Every structure is written in structure tokens, then in C-alpha cells.
Amino acid sequence: MAENQAKVAMETSAVEKQPETRTETKEAPSMVRTKRIMVAIDENDSSFYALQWAIDHFSNLLLTTEAVQGGTLTLVHVQSPFQFPVGPGFPTAAVYASSAMVESVKKAQQEASTALLSRALQICRPQKIRTETLALEGDAKEMISETVDQLNVDLLVVGSRGLGKFKRAFLGSVSDYCAHHAHCPILIVKPPKELTK
């Protein structure tokens, strides 16, 4: 009888140690985090070449499918703030502009930005990818780097104008500055030799 009680106790402990079976409902798979690629656009053909290169090589990250919510392609153009020429022949005290003149110049700058971004959108349209545009004013290097941080950009694409060492030293290079200050990977797309001539 003592043996039977021991058997029963062993069987009970074996049953108690079995894992519980739970019925779980599977939720739909969560969408993969949206990617954001930003391309800097300016008046140079090298920036449009960089845009086309980015579309050709990264469209798989930007397209929406059933399992993946497509990314966003952000096109940014930074317009330099309007300044009157100052220097020899332009005494600072003698240069005064009417508000109508300042407004006229600003309007022309906005129209130029709109035209550039429209041209860039025409390149993106056939790919059917989500695209947004930003027209900013300020120093291009600084504004692009700040915008990268504000929008949590995953990749910044900029074109290289192919400035020589002398021009780069005096003018500064947007791509060089962004490579050191933007807090995301940066891709500098060099144009083919035909565009640099």
C-alpha cells in the first residue's frame, strides 16, 4: 500500500510539472519601420544625377508592399538668404532697399526653389514612391545637417560638384560638411565625367 501511495505521488508530481498549454491569438505581423532617405537638390545637374541614382538603387526601400510600409523620399532645397552686395563699389551706408524690392527678390527665390523641386518630383513620379519636398532658407550645409536630425533621416544622399581643392577650401563643400556633421550615413554620388565638363 505504501508502494501504491508512492506511485500516485510520483504520477501527481509528473502531472504538476507539465507545461501549461495556452491558446494565443496571433496578431498581424507588425510593419517594418519606415525608412527615410533625404536627397539634397540644388541648381547643379550633379544633384539631379544623385537623385536618379538614389531612386535606381534604393527604390526597394521606398516602395510599399503588403508586408512592408514603404519609406519616404525627402527632397530638400536650401535657398541662401537674400543679401545686398557689400564691398568695393557698394558702400554699406548707401545701400537701402525698398520693401517691395526685397519682397520681389524673395518671391523670385521661392519660385526658383519651387521649380527645382518640381523638376525633382517629375523624376520621382514614375516610381510611385512616397515623396515630400522641403524648401528651406539659410546656409545649405547647416540646414541640411539640422534637418537630418529633426527628421531622423536614415540616409542622406548628396551630389558632388567636383570642386577642386582650391575652390573647396574657399567655398566649402556641402558634402564635406555633411559627412562630418550629419548624424546618419551619407552617400556622396559623384557624377559621370560628362556632367563635370
Automatic annotation (TrEMBL):
<dbReference type="InterPro" id="IPR014729">
    <property type="entry name" value="Rossmann-like_a/b/a_fold"/>
</dbReference>
<feature type="domain" description="UspA">
    <location>
        <begin position="35"/>
        <end position="190"/>
    </location>
</feature>
<feature type="compositionally biased region" description="Basic and acidic residues">
    <location>
        <begin position="17"/>
        <end position="27"/>
    </location>
</feature>
<protein>
    <submittedName>
        <fullName>Universal stress protein A-like protein</fullName>
    </submittedName>
</protein>
<dbReference type="InterPro" id="IPR006015">
    <property type="entry name" value="Universal_stress_UspA"/>
</dbReference>
<dbReference type="Pfam" id="PF00582">
    <property type="entry name" value="Usp"/>
</dbReference>
<dbReference type="InterPro" id="IPR006016">
    <property type="entry name" value="UspA"/>
</dbReference>
<feature type="region of interest" description="Disordered">
    <location>
        <begin position="1"/>
        <end position="29"/>
    </location>
</feature>
